[in-house]
Amino acid sequence: MPRDRPADGEAPPAAAAQERRLRRDLGFWGLTAIAFSNIVGSGWLFAAMYAAQTAGPASLLSWVAAGLLCVLVALVMIELGASRPEGGGTVRWPLYAGGRLVGTLIGWSVLLSVGGTAAEISAIMQYAGHYLSGIYRDGSLTVVGLGVAAALSAVLTVLNWFAVRMFARLNNLLSVFKIAVPVVTVVALLASGWHAGRLTDHGGFAPYGYAACLSALAGGGIVYSVNGFQAPLDFSGETRNPRRTVPASVLTGIALAVLMYLALQVAFLFTVPEGALGHGWHGVDFESPFGQLALLLNLHWLSVLLYADAVVSPGGSAYVGVALDARHTYALAKNGTLPRWFMTVEPRSGIPRRALVLNLAVIMVFLLPFGGWQDIVSVMGDMYLLTYAASAVAAAVFLADPGSGTAGWVPGLRWIAPASFTVAAEFVYWSGWHDLRLALPLVLVGLLVFLAMHRSAGAARPLLPELRTGAWLVVFLAVLTLLSWLGSFGGSGRLPAPWDSLTVAAFAFAVFFWAVRAGTGWLRASRGTDGGVFPGAASPEGPSPHP
Predict the structure, then answer these.
(1) CA of 55: how far to CAs of 205, 269, 428, in Å?
(2) CA 251 from centroid of its chain's CA atoms
(3) What are the tens digits of pLDDT across the range 358-377?
(4) Which helix (H) or strand (E) holds 140?
(5) Contact status, residue 324 vs residue 144, Cβ threshold 8 Å
(6) CA 441, CA 448: separation in Å to the nearest integer?
(7) Helix 164-193 vs helix 28-39: angle between axes, to the nearest 10 degrees?
(8) Is the pLDDT at 390 greater than 60, yes or no?
(9) Is the separation of the CB atoms in 57 and 205 below 8 Å?
(10) Which of 353, 407, 340, 387 is nearest to 541 (CA)?
(11) Rounded to two decimals, what is the model's pTM?
């Protein structure tokens, strides 16, 4: 497919000029703090209870499995971040390796995933309702609560308005607090309310079977809680020595977060009062799990600290989320999915401020139609998981192309990439029919966005080759929706466990190789008509994504 540029030839140089305005001020600890802060948000306040309800003590295995699976997914993204660092890279790489249809669908899903930041703000309001009655009622924000949430969103946007170095310093302070409070919580609870035998009593270690460990990965909030490790990759264009710093910070962030979640899960399992287990682990139900446990154990000081952290912890994640959203919007503008006006980087601060303003408006919208914390994260979190799948394809496409100049940081990438794609597909599937029936069709609306963009480009660009190149993603989303309806994760049950997950794995494995073949053909055709320019090598723009 020929590489086409705007008639005036100015768009790619303009995008490259904006990329050069980004400040390379982030080091290892700054990036690690970004990864940890983005992972550890409101999840730690709820996920231990949800996981215990779903799988009992066997939920400990779910956390270990989630950590290993996330590392598998992270490895392909680490290779991409080390090979071709770029602001908002997770939005750009699928476009480079898969063409405009794939780039538009993934970009659209990322734009919708801004709702994840709204989820953190909603979680803050839920816990703040402990002190401010009238802002959160019956599982949703009140009118007053919406006003407070909107004001908080504006404050987080203003805090991201200045240089990335200032952002990193403030986030480092928040991360120290976010580590200290869970550590104090684990120590205080275990010292005050240890109940021996919890791994064998009340139905044994796996009272609901080991298959429940899979259900806990999504239904127990574990996947959502460990999600967010990719954050340093979107700051790779603002990082000193990204080839060394990005991989180390991503893996360190995952390790720290999983260790903390395991400790919190142990503390919850061993300190829940016997009276709460009359109906087994399924019957354990607290509105504010660790806060109420602290009160039951007469640790009033800990309860006060927890309710304070209930604002700071998701607030820190929302702070990073606002920064990430701006990088994504900036990248979407470079892709041409959004008007180029939003890719402007303010020269003095190195911040894409127009993108910040747009994301503030999107956050406001996502605060309106949804009720509680789980309602928002379950739908919007699913959308960002698609980026993991697209990144696995991109890594394999670049590896298959002799001119890619891959970093070679990850050994065994040829087998890690298809495994990562399959894991990402399972993550999406395990989210359940209740969520996917909304999430996946919403992503497919991006097909209409693509067609509208193509129409605006006129007849200079043939439609059929682009549809053929990106058809794998449309089929993938449509069939995954069907399998979710047929399966056992909230679906009709016509395809029972474990055959449903095995079917998803087999389907994903086949689609992966289809996607890599289509992407490799598109990339080679683009390079062949462009004198050998490759994304991340001679030109920061690579194959022009611009309509």
Answers:
(1) 9, 11, 19
(2) 15
(3) 888 888 877 775 544 455 55
(4) strand 140-141
(5) no
(6) 12
(7) 50
(8) yes
(9) yes
(10) 340
(11) 0.80
